[in-house]
Write a sequence for this structure.
């Protein structure tokens, strides 16, 4: 009798399952009008279209010429919208800003960003809003950026001295890319923790490895629903190991800083960490700043701020070395303004107008984040006549838009003068020029990023002439980006510095 009851229950359950399946087939879902896109293969989707080019954003640009400014791809099982015109970028970041205010979180990034509880990858909501407010008002405001000027002045002076030391006659050329990276890291670590940090090398090494795991598409990220792929994919595991190392180091730094803070050490208030600890102590934020939250914010600031700034400075120098006329003009501008000076401060940047154009033009040709950071559609919506389903991940191809000949004359050429004739700026409202993104998720760190670049660039131009190794012509300087999602230069910039104005020792 009991057995019969069980059999009956099982049969009923099977019948219900079959009926519900039939019903879902019969009740046809309204057909969505998706943006066009290239043909897909089972399992990998559109991936085969992206491997034909050295970088994903170049491949996406090629495809968008055929399929248009709103294009649908499938990366593994992830539906992905690619946005490739200023109008489409405006539709996403302004007209439908809230709908696209989430970030797409893949498996590797989820591991690194504490499951998206941070600012950079946090999903749109109260916690994110509060953290973003802290970053905008307390950490990255104009006044705060100004307060770090002494750090930048000291670090640039040190940098220039070490370059001058390697500039003697017959000296080997230097890898300027590496030196720039060190300068920005040294500066940024001081801006972050308020002083030099004994854990810096260990931290940077772990950080670099972690970022490398996120700069490519990995199997675990492409097949989020597959347990097998999560097990096979090594990137999230490697990222987790790095995150744990980074967490340990940051915890140590926070602990030491707190002890200094409690013992009345005035210098403990310096740097972004000092600001956060003060806010924690005063309990003056609506979201309590726990140690974990501080750790997350510190991790974000470094991740978002350091590589982007050094990549920008490196491209400025690369393009100037490739364009002797622009180099001569930029050097004349600085040398005229600073005539005879050996001690340089940020006050001396006032009036260096060509320098600002150089930085803008380098950002136009080489957006450090060519696809910005991926957004995610929060609700199915219509954009430019197409349906975009909830959950679609969105890449805005800022790199392609910044090089579109429809909006830029001689789009592939380095011509800083182009910005003399227009008012185009990177504040997020000129949609043909979005190196810092736009809308609610726009970069809050542009002031600090530019400040870290400006003084260093002006000093490199003022103190040194730059010669290429024997037999190399300016046009031979490589301008390819490294593969993957980040717009770094593929090879180091190798040059001879020749001292023109010796720095003060
Ligand atoms: C030249 C340097 C920099 C460039 C080119 C840059 C570029 C960007 C871009 C393209 C985004 C994504 C914007 C979007 O999705 O619309 C972003 C986001 C972000 N950046 Fe920057 N950035 C730079 C420097 C910095 C610095 C110095 C900091 C802070 C220390 C910083 C902090 C952030 C944060 C916190 C976000 C996430 C914002 C959010 O999702 O709400 N950035 N950045």
């Amino acid at each position: 009798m009991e057995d019969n009851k069980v059999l009956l229950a099982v049969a009923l359950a099977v019948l219900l399952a079959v009926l519900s399946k039939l019903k879902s087939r019969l009740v046809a879902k309204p057909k969505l009008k998706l943006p066009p896109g290239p043909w897909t293969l089972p399992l990998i989707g559109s991936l085969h279209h992206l491997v034909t080019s050295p970088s994903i954003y170049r491949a996406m640009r090629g495809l968008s010429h055929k399929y248009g400014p709103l294009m649908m791809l499938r990366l593994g099982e992830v539906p992905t919208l690619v946005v490739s015109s200023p109008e489409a970028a405006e539709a996403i970041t302004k007209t439908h800003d809230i709908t696209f205010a989430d970030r797409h979180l893949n498996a590797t990034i989820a591991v690194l960003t504490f499951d998206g509880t941070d600012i950079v990858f946090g999903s749109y909501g109260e916690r994110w809003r509060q953290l973003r407010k802290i970053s905008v008002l307390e950490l990255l405001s104009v006044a705060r950026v100004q307060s770090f000027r002494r750090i930048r002045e000291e670090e640039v002076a040190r940098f220039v001295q070490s370059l001058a030391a390697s500039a003697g006659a017959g000296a080997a050329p230097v890898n300027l890319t590496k030196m720039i990276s060190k300068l920005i890291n040294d500066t940024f670590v001081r801006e972050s923790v308020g002083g030099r940090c004994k854990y810096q090398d260990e931290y940077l090494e772990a950080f670099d490895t972690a970022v490398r795991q996120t700069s490519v598409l990995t199997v675990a990220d492409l097949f989020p629903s597959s347990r097998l792929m999560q097990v096979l994919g090594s990137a999230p595991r490697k990222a987790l190991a790095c995150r744990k190392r980074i967490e340990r180091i940051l915890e140590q730094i926070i602990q030491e800083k707190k002890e200094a803070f409690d013992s009345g050490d005035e210098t403990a208030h310096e740097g972004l960490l000092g600001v956060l600890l003060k806010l924690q102590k005063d309990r003056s934020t609506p979201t309590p700043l726990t140690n974990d939250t501080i750790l997350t914010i510190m991790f974000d600031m470094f991740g978002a701020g350091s590589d982007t700034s050094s990549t920008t400075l490196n491209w400025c120098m690369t393009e100037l070395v490739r364009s002797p006329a622009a180099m001569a003009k930029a050097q004349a501008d600085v040398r005229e303004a600073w005539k005879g000076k050996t001690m340089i401060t940020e006050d001396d940047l006032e009036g260096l107008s060509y320098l600002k154009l150089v930085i803008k033009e380098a950002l136009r040709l080489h957006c450090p984040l060519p696809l910005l950071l991926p957004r995610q559609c929060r609700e199915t919506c219509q954009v430019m006549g197409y349906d975009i389903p909830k959950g679609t991940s969105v890449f805005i191809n800022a790199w392609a838009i910044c090089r579109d000949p429809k909006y830029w004359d001689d789009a592939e050429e380095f011509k800083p003068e182009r910005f003399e004739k227009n008012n185009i700026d990177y504040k997020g409202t000129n949609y043909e020029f979005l190196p810092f993104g736009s809308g609610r998720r726009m970069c809050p760190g542009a002031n600090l990023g530019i400040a870290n670049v400006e003084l260093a660039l002006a000093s490199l131009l003022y103190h040194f002439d730059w010669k290429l190794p024997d037999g190399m012509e300016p046009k031979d300087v490589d301008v390819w980006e490294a593969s993957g999602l980040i717009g770094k230069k593929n090879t180091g910039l190798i040059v001879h510095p020749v001292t023109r104005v010796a720095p003060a020792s």
Notes: The pocket of protoporphyrin IX containing FE is lined by residues 119-120, 132, 135, 140, 300-301, 304-305, 308-309, 312, 368-369, 372-373, 435-438, 441-445, 448-449 (CB under 6 Å). Residues 6-10 have pLDDT under 50 and may be disordered.
